[in-house]
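Risk register update: the risk of archive-format incompatibility is retired. Evidence:
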Amino acid sequence: MATAETAALAYGRSLRDLYVIRFGFAIIWVGIMVATVADATEPTALLTVVLIVYPAFDAGAVLWQLRVDPDHQRSKVAEWTNVVVSLAVVIALGVSSSITIHGALAVWGGWAIVSGIPQLIAAIHHRRSGGQVAQMFSGGISVFAGAGLLAQGLRGNGTMTGAAGYAALGAIFFLVSAVRLSVRLRRSRT
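Archived output:
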């Protein structure tokens, strides 16, 4: 029993650290995006680089989470789906953002939808680890926000500022999850 508790606490600390890193990354990414390319009206190489970094980081973060997950019995299909989709989006954004801004916005929106569902499922599976309510909301909101971004891109309006707003909201959810996990971990020590 103590081994299971120790593993759960270690996983909670790992998740908290991951969420802090994801929060910091997202805030820095949003700052770079807003300062350089969020209002771009024409495709640029810088836009492409900035866009592909986010889903590439997302895939890496989910891989890291998979590596530290102590539950070797449960299915991890949701997380692996998220990794595969994020890597496919890196390629799709690389192509679409070099052709048209609206195409890139549509790809981003599609990614938000398709990655939001596995995020929601994974958060439900990890709910006992703590700090997952914000991740559940994040996954659900990702689906709705993604639908809006996809629609804007397909209609040929909107800018990549929407992607920056999406990432900023995600950063807030990661911060909330990290704080919730910190509180839970602190309580478990007493």
